[in-house]
Amino acid sequence: MWLLLACSASDVDEKEAARAREAAAHADLRGRERYSPAPAVGKPAPDPALIGLSRPESVLHDPLADLYLISNVNGVPFEKDNNGFISLASPAGELKNLKWIAGGSGGVTLHAPKGTGLVGRDLYVSDIDTVRVFDADSGAPKREISVDSASFLNDIAVSAAGRVFVSDTGIGATGPTGTDTIWEIVGSEAKVFAKGPELHGPNGLFVDGETLRVATWNAREIQGFLLDGSPAPPLALASSQLDGLTAGPDGQLYVSSWEAGGVLQPGRAPELWRNALPSAADIGVDLGRNRLLVPLMEAGTVVFLPLHQAPGTEEAAAPQAVPAPAPAAGQR
Ligand SMILES: [Ca+2]
Ligand SMILES: [Ca+2]
């Protein structure tokens, strides 16, 4: 990808290419620091179902359209380069539209999209210090909510009642910024739901019944808050650098960990595909297909993980009924 960019002749493209090379070098450096080669345990990860993405951070199943929405940071996660995009893919692994929603196109601003969430047919997307809302059927921009004090808006979670929560991991290009916060989007405003260094770099969010679960980047735990804001007991884990958080059809929680290079199952051993899923970011779930959707950010791919093949679940494995896909929205 970087080479293709570098081949372009115009000054604008040369600047773009130089920036891309810098970003790639930055990513490679961080990659070497984080991923010393280690043998994979458990089963080898399945082959990627989707390739050719550009730093994919999250995958979300839109159950109504029966499509997967993938946010692509495309470059440095902190940089306002307006080149981020959202891809559409089918559950069969067909990339239907790489740049369905794209910064700089169709009146869209999108720099480094990360978490996504659906409230009805409104698609919420976090983007550094702004939450952008798009029409989930057409992809058209609808509105945006500025979170001026945020440095790294990350995951989005939606409660059953439609409350929208957004994490700020509190990191920037030069290190921690101290803005660790969980925001709630209320109308056109962002209000503080929880804030402080004890959040330890909040990343993945998931509303588990009446509890908002928070995956921490800087601690080996998943924190909990009741939806009235009062604290709930945390869940301890064996690894930190936690990113995406979701639950399977049976309610089992799953969380990705960059430190583990895999997916952890809180309260249940073993880890899933340890060291086989490096840079697994904001995982999604397709409940009907019993499948985790895992973006491997630095590889530019998405892997589909069948949960009935997870290590430790062999005895429970049974043929999985795959429901017939619902008809997709016409314009997509
Ligand atoms: Ca970008
Ligand atoms: Ca994340």
Written overview of the protein:
The chain is mainly β. The protein starts with a helix and ends in a 26-residue tail after the last strand. A hairpin with a 4-residue loop joins strand 22 and strand 23 (291-296). Mean pLDDT is 86; it is low at 1-13, 15-37 and 314-332. It is globular. It has helices at residues 2-6, 11-34, and strands spanning 56-62, 67-72, 85-89, 95-102, 116-119, 122-127, 130-135, 141-146, 153-158, 164-168, 171-172, 175-176, 181-186, 189-195, 202-208, 211-216, 221-226, 231-236, 242-247, 253-257, 262-264, 284-286, 291-296, 301-306. The longest helix has 24 residues, at 11-34. It has a single domain (49-309), classed as 7 Propeller (Methylamine Dehydrogenase, Chain H), CATH 2.130.10. Strands 1-2-3-4 form a 4-stranded antiparallel beta sheet, with no helix packed on it. One calcium ion binds at residues 57, 114-115, 154-155, 203-204, 243-244, 281-282.
Helical content (DSSP H or I, runs of 4+):
under 10%
Total count of helical runs of at least 4 residues: 2
- In CATH's first tier, which class applies? Mainly Beta
Over the alpha carbons, how many angstroms does the gyration radius reach? 19 Å
Coarse shape: globular
- Compute the number of strand runs: 24
Q: Would you tell me which CATH topology applies? A: Methylamine Dehydrogenase, Chain H
Beta-strand content estimate: 35-45%
CATH homologous superfamily caption: YVTN repeat-like/Quinoprotein amine dehydrogenase
